[in-house]
Specification:
Elements (H helix, E strand, L loop, with lengths): L7 H17 L1 H5 L10 H20 L4 H14 L1 H10 L5 H10 L3 H17 L1
Helix pairs in contact: 1-3, 3-4, 4-7, 5-6
Organism: Streptomyces cirratus
Keywords: Signal
Protein name: Membrane protein
Length: about 120
């Protein structure tokens, strides 16, 4: 199995970038919010972006890193249905788009493992 990265600041940067993207280009994220969720897609886009920013801040600070990393792993699991919806919606799209959305699905696994590794490192150190 390939090694997952261990840098908490790199993970924080990834989450912060995604969080800002949710605020700057919300329409891109609105499309992948599962319709079964209550409220509007835009509300979920903003809430998930704010959560990513909060997780990034927690990962950046050593005192909150362990808990934030565990919450990040849970977050990555929680947003997986949006990735599934994106792949389902793309099934009639261009082959390159279909391939990209399908390839994204297994990428959640290394993200979860990365967050768990950061949590274990924070607990040990």
């Amino acid at each position: 199995m390939p090694r997952t990265p261990s840098s908490p600041l790199l993970l924080a940067g990834l989450l912060a970038t995604a969080g800002v993207a949710h605020a700057v280009r919300p329409e891109q994220f609105d499309k992948i919010v599962p319709r079964s969720l209550p409220g509007t897609a835009r509300q979920w886009t903003y809430v998930s972006g704010a959560a990513e920013l909060a997780l990034a801040a927690g990962l950046a600070h050593p005192r909150t890193r362990r808990v934030a990393a565990l919450a990040t792993a849970a977050f990555f699991v929680g947003v997986f249905p949006a990735n599934v919806k994106m792949a389902v919606d793309a099934r009639r799209g261009a082959p390159a788009v279909r391939a990209a959305t399908l390839a994204r699905l297994p990428l959640q696994v290394p993200l979860v493992l990365w967050a768990r590794k950061v949590s274990r490192s924070a607990a040990a150190g």
